[in-house]
Specification:
heterodimer; A: 730 residues; Four Helix Bundle (Hemerythrin (Met), subunit A); 5 domains; B: 122 residues; alpha/beta; Rossmann fold; 5 helices; 20% strand
Chain lengths: 730, 122
């Protein structure tokens, strides 16, 4: 990969960040936060994207960003009021900018039908279009992509014949008298003289006439002047380029001596910087052709006769950074993900090895409690665990990055359905493993579409129901019991249970006489084959059903639960692990094998007493904490034995799964708690019902991690709940 | 002697482009992400031969940064080249008024960049 390719990757990563900044900033502005910091951050985001895009010749992106930036600048200058109409254009422009970045990355283009109307609106807002306002001190010329190309124009005037004076005598005489400002800006006369010397043979004369006596000498004054005669193959443009930065702060004249060499007059900056017009250039050529000295040079090469300094713009640049700014961020380094993952893998191996070592030492009798060896072993265990926690934290990222993509979805669906939606997010800084963050985007997108399309009622219906016209969708994240819980809540009509039930029965998904609680009924909408509404909407129905959503969440070790209150709305709750790499588990024995029960699911462990046991139907039940729950023999269920074990000889573990459903798992013995490194069974072997994953036990053997919810699965109708479909609320 | 250039830009892309061009041309480089960071880097390192700075940056923008450098007796002699996105004369004037030594227009051509450095670096 070339260096430029690598920088290109950096550029697009940075674009993502800037686009998020933009979204956050615009959303804040739309919400009324139009302070200078917010507006500047928004402006800077677009400006940055434009700057980088130029380096990669992404013209469409540069062009759009430029117009967008110009309009944002109007807001920044206080000339354009960021009212709802303006913000609507800005937000939609951000969406298009998003697409343009994606197109730039993937090598495509965005159709002009998408960009053109917004460009027109942006220009109108900036006061450039018909009916616009202001803009008198802005660049009046319509934006031209070619303005952004700074490739020097190669002038080939070779046809003009041999006008070369012969190249013997000096060709130019440069008179150069610096003013004090030149030195104050850290330009240096000697450097300029040195650079002139690189062009060709020079003859330099220093003029010290202005040098005062020592007592009158200002150490920061400028008293010396030089006259330099240059010969050789040199052009005026080359000389002028050397003085490009200095000529404002010095008296400079460049005289052509005799006939100049016209064969290679270059136009510096193609007019971009020095603003030499073709007319000026022709005049100069004319002068040289007639052998006359070049027309007075200094003022002519001054910046373009474009609008003069913009006081308003200047004023705005300053407050941009005045005073204290946002909180200091900790220093950051960027590390390639594979390196982190390698580290995590190694630490995982280390944890396993440490566990094996501890166990062997214990078994060998060498490490007795309180002995130095045992203390060292415990210290090693503690350090290993700290190391693992620290390494895992490296992969943690706030969910912000994915949450920030949602407002756009909301806008799109709202405008497609004609519904009014207020969208709120909470807990954006909640951190979770990077992979989880990344894989959240799709299910979230789909659920938010659903929430608006199916959850919220039309404005008329809402008003009729005595609700505010605008519906609310809330997306929130929080840490709970070592997991992350993400909720999507709407204040719509809620799930129409009788309709859901009717559909499920009609589709043969549940028996007509099934007895279901409200809660259970709500979950039906996640069944595969549960087709929704009578009218298919093109918003939710983008080919991704809720069954796929649920699967993708489960693939992350998560659960999806729906709760609904008729008339008040629905809440989709995702409960996900913070990391996909380790798990706190209780190590248990079943027959001769070691299994792991996720600690997060465990409520309590207990030894069943004879008086608490009873048979319910064909199954065993146990009374614990006042309620009677199914007692599932893990050994029997997973096929370790064919006859049920005696509950009185084993240990029961009360576990809680989705929807707060509880069962007791019967195992033979408990060996302790341990953090285990998760190894995917699907990746290394194949999916096994009832088993979530595997790990390596302290003995160095494979231990299976129990899937608690799968254990409960045939205790009720839950066997049906494998996938789902969106449901129509109306 | 190898010259050292400090680049101050909040855009990682620009920093990388500058780094790539400058290292290719044989310069040592220091990097900073905004004006405040730039001043910190100047405090904590041997002084660079040239500073290249962006204008639009969070916390402390390029103009304030240039003013701060020019106001510091120990730093004021360091040439500063400003990176501007377009050939906006007003912007260039503001940079010059703040004390910029020279300027480069983005997207920059590595050769022009090196040329600009040579015209200001002692």
């Amino acid at each position: 990969m070339s260096a430029l390719d690598e920088i290109r990757i950096v550029f697009f990563q940075e674009c993502e960040e800037q686009l998020q900044e933009l979204e956050t900033g615009l959303t804040a502005m739309a919400g009324g936060e139009t302070d200078a910091d917010t507006v500047n951050a928004v402006f800077r985001a677009v400006h940055s994207i434009k700057g980088g895009a130029g380096a990669f010749a992404l013209k469409q992106l540069v062009g759009f960003a430029h117009v967008f930036e110009t309009t944002l600048d109007e807001v920044r200058q206080g000339r354009l009021d960021p009212g709802p109409e303006v913000m609507d254009v800005m937000l939609r422009s951000a969406d298009v900018l998003n697409d343009l970045v994606a197109a730039g990355r993937d090598g495509g283009e965005v159709e002009a039908e998408r960009t053109a109307p917004l460009l027109a609106e942006l220009e109108r807002l900036a006061g450039k279009g018909p009916g616009g306002h202001g803009g008198e001190d802005e660049d009046e010329t319509p934006f031209n992509f070619d303005d952004l190309d700074f490739t020097p124009v190669a002038f080939d005037l070779g046809d003009l014949g041999d006008l070369d004076g012969g190249g013997d005598g000096p060709k130019f005489r440069v008179s150069f008298r610096p003013r004090p400002e030149l030195y104050a800006k850290a330009n240096e006369a000697t450097v300029l003289l040195r650079e002139l010397g690189t062009l060709g043979p020079v003859s330099t004369t220093c003029n010290a006439d202005a040098l005062p006596l020592l007592d009158a000498l200002d150490p920061e004054g400028a008293y010396l002047a030089w006259t330099i005669e240059i010969s050789g193959d040199v052009t005026e443009a080359q000389i002028r380029e050397i003085f490009e930065f200095a000529e404002w702060d010095c008296d400079l004249t460049i005289e052509a001596l005799g006939l100049a060499d016209l064969s290679e007059i270059a136009v510096p900056d193609a007019g971009a910087d020095t603003g030499i017009s073709v007319a000026d250039l022709l005049a100069r050529i004319q002068g040289e052709l007639t052998g006359a000295p070049a027309p007075e040079a200094a003022p002519e090469a001054a910046p373009a006769p474009a609008p003069e300094a913009k006081p308003a713009a200047e004023a705005a640049e300053k407050p941009a950074a005045g005073g204290e700014k946002k909180e200091e961020a900790a220093p950051v380094i960027r590390v390639e993900l594979p390196r982190v993952d390698k580290l995590i893998d190694l630490v995982g191996e280390l944890v396993t090895t440490q566990a094996i070592l501890s166990q062997r030492l214990e078994e060998s009798g060498a490490a007795t409690t309180g002995s130095d060896l045992m203390n060292s072993v415990e210290e090693l265990q503690r350090l290993t665990r700290d190391l693992q926690d620290s390494v895992m934290a490296v992969r943690a990222q706030p969910v912000k990055s994915v949450f920030q993509r949602m407002p756009r979805i909301v806008r799109e669906v709202a405008s497609a359905t004609g519904k009014k939606v207020g969208f709120q997010t909470r807990g954006e800084n909640t951190e979770v493993d990077k992979t989880v963050v990344e894989r959240l985007a799709e299910p979230l997108t789909h659920m938010i579409r659903n929430a608006i399309d199916h959850g919220l009622e039309s404005p008329e219906k809402r008003l009729a129901a005595g609700k505010p016209e605008e519906g609310t969708v809330t997306l929130s994240a929080a840490h709970r019991s070592g997991r992350i819980v993400i909720e999507i809540a709407d204040d719509g009509a809620g799930i129409n249970r009788s309709k859901v039930r009717e559909i499920a029965v009609n589709k043969g998904l549940i028996p007509a006489d099934a007895v279901l609680t409200d809660e259970e009924t709500d979950q039906l909408i996640m069944l595969p084959g549960f087709s929704t509404a009578t009218t298919v909407s093109n918003i939710s129905g983008r080919g991704v059903g809720m069954d796929v959503v649920k699967q993708s969440i489960e693939a992350l070790g998560g659960r999806l639960v729906i709760t609904s209150r008729p008339g008040f709305g629905s809440t989709f709750t995702m409960n996900l692990p913070l990391t996909l790499a380790v798990l706190d588990g209780m190590v248990v024995r079943v027959e001769e094998d070691t299994l792991v029960v996720p600690l997060a699911s465990i409520v309590v462990t207990f030894r069943p007493q004879p008086e608490d046991l009873q048979m319910i139907g064909a199954g065993q039940a146990v009374k614990v904490r006042g309620s009677t729950l199914p007692l599932i023999d893990v050994g029997l269920k997973l096929g370790y034995r064919t006859a049920p074990a005696d509950p009185l000889t084993g240990v029961a573990i009360l576990v809680e799964g989705d929807n707060n459903r509880r069962v007791a798992l019967l195992v033979d013995d408990i060996r302790g708690q341990r953090q285990v490194v998760i190894k995917s069974l699907e990746k290394n072997y194949r999916p096994v019902p009832g088993i979530a994953a595997a790990t390596i036990s302290g003995e160095g053997r494979v231990a299976l991690i129990i899937d608690v919810d799968a254990m409960m699965s045939d205790q009720s109708f839950d066997q049906f709940i494998l996938g789902n479909e969106p449901i129509a609320a109306e | 002697m190898t010259k050292t250039i400090l680049t101050v830009d909040d855009s990682r892309t620009m920093r990388e482009l500058l780094r790539s061009a400058l290292v290719e041309a044989g310069f040592n480089i220091l990097q900073a992400e905004d004006g405040i960071h730039g001043l910190e880097v100047l405090r904590e390192n041997a002084l660079p031969d040239v500073i290249i700075t962006d204008i639009n940056m969070p916390r402390m923008n390029g103009l304030e940064f240039i003013e701060a450098v020019r106001a510091d007796r120990g730093l004021r002699a360091i040439p500063i080249i400003v990176l501007t996105t377009e050939s906006d004369p007003a912007k260039k004037d503001r940079a010059r008024n703040a004390g910029a030594t020279g300027w480069i227009v983005k997207p920059f051509d590595p050769q022009r960049l090196v040329g600009a450095i040579n015209r200001v670096a002692a």
